Give the backbone structure.
Amino acid sequence: MLEIRIHGRGGQGNVVAAYLLAAAAIDGGRYAQAFPAFGAERRGAPVAAFVRIDEQPIRRRCQVREPLFLIVQDPALMEVPGTLSGLQTGGTVLVDGTEAGIDDSGENEIITMPATRLAMEHIGRPVPNTALLAAFITLTGLMPLSGLIDALAERFKGPVLEKNRSLVEAAAETVEAGRWREVAHGVGA
Amino acid sequence: MALALEGSQALARTVALCRPQVVAAYPITPQTHIVEGIAKLVADGKLACEMVSVESEHSAASVALGAAVAGSRAYTASASQGILLMAEVLYDIAGLRIPLVMTCANRALSGPLNIWNDQQDSMSMRDSGWIQLYCATNQEAVDTTVQAFRIAERCELPVMVCVDGFTLTHTLEPLELPSAEQVDGFLPAYNFRHGLDPADPRSLGTLVGPEHFSEVRHAHHQALMRAQAEIEQADADWAEVVGRHCGGLLEVRGDPDARLGILTLGSVLGTLEDAMDEDPDLPRARFIKLRSYRPFPAEALRKACEGLDHLIVLERALSPGAGGIVGPEVQTALVEMAEPPRVHNYAAGLGGRDLALDLYGRLVQAVFGGERPREFAIIDADPRMLPESDR
């Protein structure tokens, strides 16, 4: 079972990101589960959401305490206690930032990509979630990007969907396809 | 084909498939997405239904009551403080034996204010005379909702479908929704025999004095006891339609030969099952998933407990000053057994505290760990966080 934790702030579409990722996995024929850990429901407050993906039905409903992957929607959250908590040895972090970059100096590789900037360019809103998901799916090769587009098509239509599609394509270009494939396959997901 | 759906959205669509004619609701976390979803289906013209936005939960329950008595298939949903504000009307609905269905998106009760999941809200309505069915998964919540309308209408009793807030309502996962044909075949149009009709004027809810009140209560109690058969039947018949069953009154899972039993209500079961399977060094358990809490299936429970030495009753609520709520009822039911298991009663996961995989080990340790088990404990509470005087 592959476990992912997504950190963000209220209003950044954290839960939507978790739902989109799980929906894309289900669309690809896998079992998946996504749910939030709501804090006080207010804009700006740190929030987390969880995703599990597996080949078998998922029975457990506890929070993800030891994720293999972290997706962090705001670089400032990297300094907040709890964000990196429980990250598995060899696990990796994808984080929003001003520029694309790779920090492989520590035990856990951290890849930064300009998700908010790309979102502003393509959809005109500072919401990094879709760009981060596109990059995450590209890095892990967990599913084709079309799975994410299909999941987006459940929520958006017409010009908004087209803008999201161009955002997904642009975000995928910022990272190395398949770089985290071995990390994801190490757990048999 | 399985759809990727949030539990609440799946429930909204399932309720719509049951063709309610009146839905009255007031939004409250974590129920909101369910009634929002139904309101949207009505607004989009996909459900022909009177959606009544009311100013309080007391009114929501009252509108549902009135609609059902006027002959409509009616539905409402609430949680937590909303259930408390409905309380007066919920007792009326049950006491007047009115068939309607509500979803309780289980949440803690104030105070202190807490919006997260436990089951204190539905437990507070334990004695109201509603049928209460607890769901272990979102798929069960979908299937139980369809069954609930049939149970309500055949038994002429209201049914509360209890669905853990957030843990189920806000979880997206692959879910199978029935087709309209499947639901229509299972739930034919309904005509409430005791509905009000201007052509045949009668009164409902009149004063009942001491000369009749005990008999009214007796009849209500008997109706609930008889509902056990209808709950089993509805589950079996629905399984014929969709190929899935929810466990009837209760379901025995896990290791059937285990001497340790764990009884649960709601969504914690899957986590305990995973925890047991992941650690072969821990003692095995027979899980008893209590689906029907009201009516309380004492006979089925005794059968499920045969051969057990210990039974842990794990609750998501408590009765402060006494201990567990379900535990003592289970103990009473098992007294008639020749060799009843020893009952251990714990609460856990109150106010949304995460029920992690280590819960299974903690429960086992509490029973077999050498320390004499206490009669009742909130097993995941840490008294060290409290001042000495509160421990």
Summary: The beta strands of chain A are 2-9, 31-37, 46-54, 69-72, 92-96, 101-103, 110-113. Chain A is about 35% helix and 20% strand. Chain A has one domain: 2-185.
